[in-house]
Amino acid sequence: MSSASTTTVYVPRDSSALSLGANAVADAIATEAKRRKADINLIRNGSRGLYWLEPMVEVATARGRFAYGPTSEADVPALFDAGFLDGGEHHLALGLTDDIAYLKRQSRVTFARVGITDPVSLDDYVAHGGYLGLTRALAMSGTEIVQEVTVSNLRGRGGAAFPAGIKWKTTLDQSAKQKYVVCNADEGDSGTFSDRMIMEGDPFVLIEGMTIAGVAVGASVGYIYLRSEYPDALRTLTAAIDAAGRAGYLGAHVRGSGKPFRLEIRVGAGAYICGEETAMLESLEGKRGVIRFKPPLPAIAGLFAQPTVVNNVITLASVPAIIERGGKAYNEYGFGRSRGTIPLQLAGNVKRPGLFELPFGLTLRELIGDFGGGTASGRPLRAVQVGGPLGAYFPNSMLDLTIDYEAIAGAGGLLGHGGVVVFDDTADLAQMARYAMEFCALESCGKCTPCRIGSTRGVEVIDRIIANRDRSNNVELLRDLCDTMTAGSLCALGGLTPLPVLSALKYFPEDFGLPPTKEARIGV
Amino acid sequence: MALDHPWDRAAVLAIVNGLKHEPGALMPILRRIQDDLGWVPPASIPLIAHELNLSRAEVHGVVSFYHDLRQEPPGRNVVRVCRAESCQAMGAVALADHVRKRLGTDFGGISADGAFSLEAVYCLGNCACSPAVVINGELLGRVTPARFDGAIASLVRR
Q: What value does the CA radius of gyration of chain A take, rounded to a whole number of Å?
């Protein structure tokens, strides 16, 4: 352990930080410290989510944690020369981490520990308020726990925004020998990475949330369905589950309560559709990820036809704080019917991309301007896609939209999993509409004809529009096809692919070779 | 379909026997075969089907459904380029064109010398550092054509 003269240095192990060279920075710091006989304790933390500053190195000083970034291994000797182990001045110095404006303006509830703790240290988790929620839950009845979640007005953060409390109550009310809790960690939407950041940066909070869900509804087994594109998340989650099991937070008697809860990770195999809950359940059963008809609801007959709570990572990771502080406290955050906080993920062509956990109610302009700093290219912003590949494209003139479920839906889009992707004026929205259809064709499970066949026809129709072959009739045909897909698909993939397509057509008609419409001019 | 590629029957059988009693065993089994062998040999399907008491059609249906499950062995190196929206907003279309030319193969193919498999991927969760590429399992962010060439330089010479 650390002696009095040991300095703790943090270098993220988050996969995005690694993709920018964080391992090389960590190695260089360890080597340089050894060479200079400096006594350091190197901790690999999660990311604070300020990705334009990654790899962001932090040093614990008497005044608090000091940040430096973005660093590269070549900067390391100079950082030592500048006395960064004591918070010394250097051109990469960012000051006290807590004072960084982009962190200070956030309301970190679900992400309270991400970037602060050692993600695989159970002791660190507990020292930072971890497992207080479970401790409280174990003294409550299932009905009382579900009631707290209901009072919080937590809605599913995976995209569908369904009230979590109602789902839980439905499963609680079933009598069955075996119930399940399934965590949907198949975060496939482009522009989203909040699930990944939690699993890499604070995996115990997800484990705790799932354990509380299991205790509440009477489920003794949990599965995390993790996408294969997240190997680092698999490593951190596996280490955390092992540690939680060894310490009795998982197993036959959770914390000596007599209540069992086992947790297992299942890794997907690269199918976007498996983010749809019923396709995910099929995949967990060892089958093709083909979606199911609903009803029956998974809460009544889900995994292996047993009552199953299916929630997204962020939904479950929000539960410990809700149980610890009460549903009412969580419900005090937010706007309109969207209560609590949402980790917004800002990506694409933006100067300061990252994750910002904020109460609902900010506008897109505030997010992209104040936090994001405009486009990365410095060119004018032309479009933003909100809510992943099934979300609408909005023009610059609509950025005063409030970020909450109802406002975005009212404008013909969806907030989805909270991703916002920014495009500058080089973007061709006809190509983006074509891509939306192409993606749907690639990822369709094949169950519904409008999705399976319609998406391929959609690519062809858009190609004809772009090539000006019988353009006006083909635009009509595209609208008709989109109607059929919307009305004739069982799940969101076929049902919502028309959103990006039709919004691109509505707000950016010139990209399709059409004259500007009234909507495109005034952006309504 | 690849017919003549050799595959390790004993390894597949060991994986199947190690996992076949898990609930929903087929997916973990195929995942492990893919991870250990780098592909799921079509010739192993009857063996898997027999051990799990499934039909060959059921196993083939699952193998062919999932993008990750390769039905032939990959090149010596595997390059995956993200082609989703956030990466497109940061130049992924031009990067994909560069990679195709540089490796001399299209997406879904293997370069003539067998050195590189090129695969499309739709989101790596590295959207804040777009565009993203994975080379032999290592994730890279903010990839430019020049950075890509630098990253594969040591692999080309081999």
A: 24
ipTM value greater than 0.85: yes
Q: Is A15 in the B-facing interface, judged by CB distances under 8 Å?
A: yes
Average pLDDT over residues B117-144: 98
Nearest to B122 among A190, A285, A348 (CB): A190
Q: Which domains does chain A have, with CATH numbers?
A: 7-100 (3.40.30.10), 122-331 (3.40.50.11540), 338-424 (3.10.20.600), 429-522 (1.20.1440.230)
Our CA-based measurement puts residue B89 at a distance from the nearest CA of chain A, in whole angstroms, of 5
- pTM of the predicted structure, to 2 decimals: 0.97
Q: Do A270 and B61 touch (CB under 8 A)?
A: no
Given an 8 Å threshold on Cβ–Cβ distance, is A422 in contact with B142?
no
A355 chain-B contacts, CB cut-off 8 A: 128
Mean pLDDT (whole number) for A12-23: 98
Residue A271 has its nearest CB partner, among B66, B126, B137, at B66
In the predicted model, is pLDDT for residue B3 greater than 70?
no
* B64-103 per-position pLDDT tens digit: 999 999 999 999 999 999 999 999 999 999 999 999 999 9
- Asked if A269 contacts A228 with a C-beta cutoff of 8 angstroms, the reply is yes
Q: What are the residues whose beta carbons fall under 8 Å from the beta carbon of A61, sequence distance 6 or more? A: A7, A86, A87
d(CA A393, CA A512): 14
